[in-house]
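Risk register update: the risk of archive-format incompatibility is retired. Evidence:
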Amino acid sequence: MKKHPRGRWNDEHLSASDRQKNEKIQAEFAKIQTEEQSRLKEHLETFNDGVIAIIITIMVLEVPLPSDGQTSYLELIRSLIVFLISFFIVANFWYQHHRTFGMVKQATRSILLTNFLFLAALSVLPLMTKWIMQEQDSLAIVNFGVVYFVANLMELIMYRFAFLNLFGKSETVFHFSNRITIARIWGQLLLNILLILIALKWPPVAMVLYLSLPIIAFFFPDQTGLRRQKKVRVKAALTHEEHEEQTKNRDSAEN
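Archived output:
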């Protein structure tokens, strides 16, 4: 057998039986990789649930217990309110992340990396929550807002990778997903800038707004937004099918 100029075995110099064996080995290897990525997705979802559960546990452990009279009890109430705000934010992130993973067929490296960056940003929330419990000033809430934005950004990028994972990486779908992602990132950026500006002048108002957003999204999902997402997925699917049909027609014409 001769080697390919780049160091690989050239199938043209293999016998028919050896070539058949080689194709069978490659098919088995591809099957193993596909099954491994599918199992990895399941393990990753379990890992995400565990990390988010730990994050919530850490946040509740940061709530100080009352020790000396009415002042400490009021401090407990304020800390519990801060914890509930952070809890609903993390719970909403888990909900959105779960929906995004519903689009993932296989856990690619891009999805793995984005997922870990998302968890890293989310893991900082207990620290920001403790900071606000100790000192509810503008700086603490602004930093909370920055972490909130970074976690949102990672979630949006994850949605894009999941979108491509579901519908393929054709040029049409690629540009379509880019437009959606960029528009949503700009929307999140403008919203978080507004909340940070409010936090600089009215910290308590900003905390109420940070609480209201995930609660509204979690308990009262916008039906218009859900219909819009459904239209986006349907359009992407039709675009993908149209691209595949054009490719088949072009290949048939060439043959």
